[in-house]
Amino acid sequence: MGGGWGLTVLKFSNTSGLLALGLRSQITLENLQLLSNTSSVTYGLDAESSITLDKVQINGFGKGLHIRGSYAHNKTNANGWFLNRVTILNTGNYGFYVEGDDGNAGLAQLLNIAILV
Question: Helix, strand or coil for residue 74?
Fold first, then answer.
């Protein structure tokens, strides 16, 4: 990402990344780099609520960004998510995945994904 954004770096070496939970709450992460030294870490970010990411890099996780919501199933709602200037690199599986009947309404702009082959 670079460019003098002054990113905060969070490094993970365990088996779980960052889990963002919250019913009916907007979560915002800005100027952040999530970094794993092993692709065995499951998710870089697993969101079960509406989330806004701006200038965020997710690098080296098994799966990059997972947004999911189903009020009927587990009382979560992730509709209204927004991604801006997000980079997802070196994932062992998918880079970006949205699932659920309450996770499908969102907008991604300037999204860059490069997975491991």
Answer: helix
Strand order in the sheet with 81-89: 8-12, 27-36, 51-59, 81-89, 106-114
**Of the candidates 82, 80, 85, the residue with the CA atom closest to the CA atom of residue 2:** 85
Is residue 1 included in any domain, yes or no?
Answer: no
> 90 φ, ψ to 5°?
55, 45
Tokens of 6: 């002054």
What are the pLDDT digits (tens) for 39-90?
A: 666 788 888 888 999 999 999 888 899 998 888 877 888 899 999 999 999 8
Determine, yes or no, domain membership for 3: no
Q: Could you list the residue range(s) of the whole structural domain that residue 95 is in?
A: 8-114
